Amino acid sequence: MENLSFHDGNIFNLLHTRSQDPSHEVDQRMQLHSSLVRRLSQEQELEGHQGCVNALAWNSNGSLLISGSDDLRINIWNYSSRTLLHSIDTGHTANIFCTKFVPETSDELVVSGAGDAEVRLFNLSHLSGRAEDDNAITPSALYQCHTRRVKKLAVEPGNPNVVWSASEDGTLRQHDFRESTSCPPAGTAHQECRSVLLDLRSGAKRALADPPKQTLSLKSCDISATRPHLLLVGGSDAFARLYDRRMLPPLTSSRKRMPPPPCVNYFCPMHLSDRGRTNLHLTHVTFSPNGEEVLLSYSGEHVYLMNVNNGTGIMQYTQGDVDNLFSFSNNLHDVEYPPQVSTTPQNGFHRNCNAATVKKCTELVEIAKRSLEEGTDVFYAIEAANEVLDAHSNDIDSALRHECLCTRAALLLKRKWKNDAHMAVRDCHNARKIDASSFKAHYYMSEALQQLGRCKEALDFANAAQHLNPSDADVVAKVESIKRDLQAAGSEKNEETGAGTTRVLSLSDILYRSEANSDSSHDMSRSEREDSDYDEELELDIQTSLSDDEGRDPESNAMRGSLNLRIHRVGDDDKPMENTVDNASSGTASSSQNDRTSYQPEGAIDMKRRYVGHCNVGTDIKQASFLGQRGEYIASGSDDGRWFIWEKQTGRLMKVLVGDEAVLNCIQCHPFDSVVATSGIDNTIKIWSPTASVPSVVAGGSAGPATANVVEVMESNQQKLSRNRENPLSVELMQRFRMQEFAEGNFHPFECTQS
């Protein structure tokens, strides 16, 4: 939709305003204005690492950039000259995943976290007077209390004394440099490192209604810059959690496993809250610059925006709301999905309804309807509908809003990208709230539910649509189609029952049930376990073979061959895993039923907006970031080596740039300038600035030319997401396999694609 205007005003007007009345607000609005975003181009490539670059961060004034890599080094770059200042030999023994400048230390203190489960603090002043190649520094502080990989660090603006580390061991630790500068390795005798701020080793949930039970392997954390007492974490389930540090219990040691503390809010898109899929997890969570919104990036999923504060425009739902959304007999006067857009835009002026806006919206709806009829340009037609509903919902009357909702639902059902059917359900629900006797809303709802495999509910809506318009041939065919699907499902179920067929347990089931029943299946008593540093593990013995006719898939960079797995529990002397699972399976249902009876599920905050087009499958360090001091644009890396930029308000795709030969993971916007730094599998860092001679939606980089058809790129990414859904544990297994390779010294440049 190149002809659509953007919502950040005319840059010439902003320049004129700044010349008349300079203000910080105008500078913020100009930092990454739409006219600059569309001119972003690769300016420079920083060379200095010998492995994948997994972490980037600017210092507070933007004069320095820090990076961490698989080469076990931290590099410090000068922003003005775009040159390497220091390359520090950290002493880590596994991939560096995170690194930060410690605030208010004159940029002399930097901290790193790595796959060796260690957090290390370095003083850069110790490099002064040394030879250029003498870059090994003894850590000023060394924390070894984690038992799994450290995936993310957080610092508080203005606080030079504390750093927080999030680890896959299920704990978030608070390290205060004033109290200690070292701690013994986890598991050693008499370890009493009291640094655990969040113990989430029993904190993961498979669904909103389930009690927390499994270890929440933390992947990401962030501290609000505007309200630093607020802490956001995300990990190996679908729910991001917001905590108020003032309300948390005192720091503890890890020798006793604690129940997860209550959080302020759960964040999860409603359609992801009841999946029960063990592979669904977050790779990145972050606050917006003003602290009012959070951004969540999921593995095998999309990027989602949500509001932080409860109040107007916030939709907090429970499991009952999830069930009611699909029910024909639900109460249409309940909460609206998604929440309405605020009537006060970001520039602070009240939005006035006018004839020009209504005319523009009417034209956009007609464009969308025409694309639906012709079956062409579906992606851009959805963007046109997004513009009406997300930017001008309060400027149009209910009739036009209803028409746009139904049209967008139909377009989503035609496009069939991942979770498009769930988005269509939301639109149909809102359309029914406007007109409870809407034929289109009922018909498209039946189509959406049929695509989701909810045929009983689909038939209810199809019958209602047929009652509203008995002569419509399409709805008659829809009713018959759904009846055939129901009949086929019933026949299949009867055949399985008659033959005594039982469902074959997947590896996902085995791992989940084993974790759920670990307390009853191990000889150690619960009391003994709680008083120790015991942490139950599963080991996968992986054997691979590669024949002459097998090898690397050139399209997916995947190795094809046979893979044999032997699963056993650490400390069980190789007792067969199958016996444990079978013996405990009957108890699982009973235990789960008791937990559900006593557990009172919390609510969760639903999505505000979704950003689609990229692919996040290959890595669990992939970031989604707010761009600029006002956070008006959203950016994410992708498995195809590109990075995507969307307009936050409407989800409209702004820019696609080629930034890596394999996978792009990290995106960090400069604090003040119109500059972005990115990194990924390549051992270089790319610096981007608005230097292109003409604005465009897509652009190339060092890795390749400009992409002509961005829709084809996104279609390919959606296919990868769907394949990942069918193979939920493939990524995790490959992660562990490549970790074993790295430990044995068999380093491969693609290792960190499964970081």
TrEMBL record:
Annotated segments matching region Disordered: 515-599
Comp. bias intervals (Acidic residues): 530-540
Hydrolase found in the keyword field: no
WD repeat segments: 46-87, 657-689
Biased composition, class Polar residues, residue ranges: 580-599
Gene Ontology BP term (one): negative regulation of fatty acid biosynthetic process
Keywords, in A-Z order: Repeat, WD repeat
Keyword Translocase in record: no
Protein name according to UniProt: WD40 repeat
Record's GO cellular component terms: Cul4-RING E3 ubiquitin ligase complex; cytoplasm
Comp. bias intervals (Basic and acidic residues): 520-529
Database matches in PROSITE patterns: WD_REPEATS_2, WD_REPEATS_REGION
Pfam families according to UniProt: WD40
